[in-house]
């Protein structure tokens, strides 16, 4: 949760140690297609994606679009 809070204040924070560009791109693609709930996103992604990674990606997506 702390990383998500930081992204709220500093949306350009580097999260590459948590997510690869490819992972972030895939989550963003799914999110933009309307899969916005955490559990739905988790089900639509490969099994190696974790809930914390998805939450960080959502925070990054939401704070970059503001």
Summarize the SSE layout with pairings.
Elements: H1 2-9, H2 21-32, H3 38-44, H4 51-64
How would you describe this structure to a colleague?
The protein is mostly helical and 66 residues long. It contains four helices and no strands. α1 packs parallel to α4 and α2 crosses α4.
Give me the secondary-structure category.
mainly alpha
Number of strands: 0
Helix residue percentage: 55-70%
- Tally of domains: 1
Order of helices and strands: HHHH
C-alpha end-to-end distance: 19 Å
**Structural Rg:** 11 Å
What portion of residues belong to β-strands? Answer: under 5%
Q: What kind of sheet is the major sheet? A: none
Total of DSSP H or I helical runs spanning 4+ residues? 4
Mean pLDDT metric: 92
> Which word captures the global form?
globular
Uncertain parts: none
Q: In short, what is this structure?
A:
By secondary structure, this protein is mostly helical. Helix 2 (21-32) packs across helix 4.
């Amino acid at each position: 949760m702390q990383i998500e809070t930081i992204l709220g204040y500093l949306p350009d924070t580097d999260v590459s140690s948590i997510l690869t560009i490819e992972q972030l791109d895939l989550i963003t693609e799914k999110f933009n297609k309307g899969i916005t709930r955490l559990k739905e996103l988790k089900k639509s992604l490969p099994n190696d994606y974790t809930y914390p990674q998805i939450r960080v990606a959502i925070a990054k997506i939401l704070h970059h679009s503001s």
